[in-house]
């Protein structure tokens, strides 16, 4: 498999579809800062095409407006004909909902004095692989202890993809493995040669299991441990039916061609009922950022902006197991599973190219993961269960039942299991206090504060919105009805900012804790809630925007349109 997938060509100049092969780490387009070149000569040769396609594109204009504003009409989400809360597509999150976390973060918890300690992590409802990969990549270089990550999710799409990624990391050479994981993770199209190489290396491993379990009952759990030369291992526990489905994730269903896949995806993500909502959201973003989003929506391939997509010719089979469904919401994007700071660690000469930045950030992170798996004592255990059944199954299977970190995603929201059920289920699995006083149960409340906001009485709403508007006015101009038309997006931006970014979510959080009796639940379980300044795994308010300059505010507003999510860290008291 070509090393150009690990080292993508960055000079944006191409002739007859053939991209320049020279190193391009010196020059970037000074106007858009989205593409880079090997020389001024290549930049000049590419200028007529680049000027038309990118620099002079309407999305790059600072004066760009959504279609509804150009047409001087209220958007559909404001005129009563559509709800801005409507979504299109399945409730799947193959790229995650919130930024990736280093779940261990030894420096902020146990400390770096004893780097021979064993560490056990449980992801009870893992979502995609980002927490697992970031956690492994961020282990201290000198850590010599055993690291075990138990990762579970009820969705086979998620578990199958994680299993494939880990097998690739364990059984393929790093320069092949890293780009293969990146593109199977994020790209709708991948090179046929890349898919062939993955099948060559990974398919025999899965087919061997399928052959050996052919006579087993279809729904009984069957485990296989793949032992690597380094001593690391990947254990996968699935039913017979799920094992055979795992094999199929490396094949495209009959009839899924490049054209078929592209048309099906476009039908979902370009639904005309959502244009006003999506363009309104783009208005918050910088010209370069919205141009990157538009490019990704057009081709759905995670590569630097100026890199040729010509070799990406085959639909990603992990996205197309159901030919009739694109497995993402129409507002899903590759950036939302990572913090802006994480993404920009991969920034290149073309400093505004967030697609390239994310590619290179992932390349660095996954290179560390591959290195860890090959050189350290790292063990992965994957299962596909309802999280509520997981503690019992771990006991039944004789697996690890004491953990330094337990991450449960947003299962603690009342729309799912609720905090009482999750605390009662998983707090007994924390390591005892004498063994590790830093053992942490991490709860993520994605909807609790919005739930409290919606429950406010009319007088309470009026009071809270008045205060939120005053805070918003410190950063955005107050829309004047005499000078700003009703349809202008500045008005919607102000009010949406007041209702999300600048709302008093601390007050909503206090209300939620009282409503569900959270402090009592925690106390009864022998736990305590860490103060916000004591958090060692995740920031209590991961998207909060306070005490920043207007420039910083506008930058963050374009990336984090919500600020109501809340993490809670629970530790033992005795």
Automatic annotation (TrEMBL):
GO molecular function terms noted in the UniProt entry: zinc ion binding
Record's keyword annotation contains Ion transport: no
Segments passing through the bilayer: none
PROSITE patterns, A to Z: ZF_MYND_2
Keywords from the named record: Metal-binding, Zinc, Zinc-finger
SUPFAM superfamilies on file: HIT/MYND zinc finger-like
Protein's UniProt keywords contain Zinc-finger: yes
Pfam families (UniProt xref): DUF4470, zf-MYND
InterPro entries: DUF4470, Znf_MYND
Ranges of residues in domain MYND-type: 17-55
Protein name: MYND-type domain-containing protein
């Amino acid at each position: 498999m070509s090393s150009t997938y690990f080292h993508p060509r960055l000079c944006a100049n191409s002739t007859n579809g053939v991209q320049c092969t020279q190193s391009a780490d010196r020059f970037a387009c000074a106007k858009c800062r989205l593409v880079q070149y090997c020389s001024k000569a290549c930049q000049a040769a590419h200028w007529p095409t680049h000027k038309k396609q990118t620099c002079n594109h309407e999305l790059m204009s600072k004066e760009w407006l959504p279609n509804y504003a150009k047409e001087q009409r209220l958007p559909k989400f404001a005129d009563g004909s559509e709800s801005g809360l409507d979504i299109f597509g399945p409730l799947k999150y193959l790229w995650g909902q919130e930024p990736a976390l280093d779940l261990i973060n030894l420096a902020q918890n146990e400390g770096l004095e004893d780097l021979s300690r064993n560490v056990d992590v449980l992801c009870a409802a893992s979502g995609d692989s980002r927490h697992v990969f970031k956690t492994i990549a961020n282990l201290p270089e000198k850590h010599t202890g055993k690291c075990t990550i138990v990762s579970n999710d009820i969705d086979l799409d998620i578990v199958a993809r994680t299993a494939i990624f880990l097998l690739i990391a364990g059984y393929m050479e790093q320069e092949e493995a890293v780009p293969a994981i990146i593109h199977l993770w994020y790209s709708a199209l991948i090179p046929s040669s890349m898919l062939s190489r993955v099948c060559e290396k990974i398919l025999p491993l899965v087919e061997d299991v399928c052959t050996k379990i052919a006579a087993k009952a279809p729904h009984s759990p069957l485990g296989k441990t793949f032992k690597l030369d380094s001593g690391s291992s990947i254990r996968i526990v699935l039913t017979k039916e799920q094992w055979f489905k795992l094999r199929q994730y490396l094949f495209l269903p009959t009839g899924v061609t490049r054209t078929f896949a592209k048309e099906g995806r476009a039908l979902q993500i370009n639904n005309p009922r959502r244009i006003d909502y999506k363009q309104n959201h783009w208005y918050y973003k910088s010209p370069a950022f919205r141009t990157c989003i538009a490019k990704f929506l057009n081709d759905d391939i995670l590569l630097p902006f100026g890199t040729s997509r010509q070799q990406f010719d085959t639909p990603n089979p992990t996205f197309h197991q159901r030919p009739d469904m694109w497995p993402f919401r129409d507002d899903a994007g590759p950036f939302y599973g990572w913090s802006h700071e994480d993404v920009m660690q991969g920034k290149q000469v073309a400093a505004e190219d967030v697609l390239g930045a994310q590619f290179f950030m992932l390349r660095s992170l996954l290179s560390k993961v591959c290195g860890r798996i090959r050189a350290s004592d790292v063990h992965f255990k994957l299962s596909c269960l309802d999280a509520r059944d997981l503690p019992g199954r771990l006991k039944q299977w004789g697996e690890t039942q004491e953990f330094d970190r337990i991450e449960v995603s947003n299962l603690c929201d009342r729309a799912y299991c609720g905090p009482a059920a999750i605390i009662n289920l998983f707090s007994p699995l924390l390591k005892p206090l004498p063994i590790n006083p830093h053992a942490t149960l991490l709860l993520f409340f994605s909807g609790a504060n919005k739930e409290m906001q919606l429950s406010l009485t009319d007088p309470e709403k009026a009071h809270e919105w008045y205060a939120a508007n005053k805070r918003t006015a410190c950063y955005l101009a107050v829309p004047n009805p005499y000078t700003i038309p009703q349809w202008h997006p500045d008005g919607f931006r102000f009010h949406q900012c007041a209702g999300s970014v600048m709302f008093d979510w601390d007050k909503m959080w206090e209300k939620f804790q009282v409503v569900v009796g959270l402090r009592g639940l925690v106390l009864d379980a022998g736990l305590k809630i860490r103060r916000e300044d004591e958090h060692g795994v995740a920031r209590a308010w991961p998207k909060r925007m306070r005490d920043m300059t207007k420039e910083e505010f506008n930058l963050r507003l374009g990336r984090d349109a919500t600020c109501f999510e809340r993490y809670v860290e629970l530790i033992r008291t005795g």
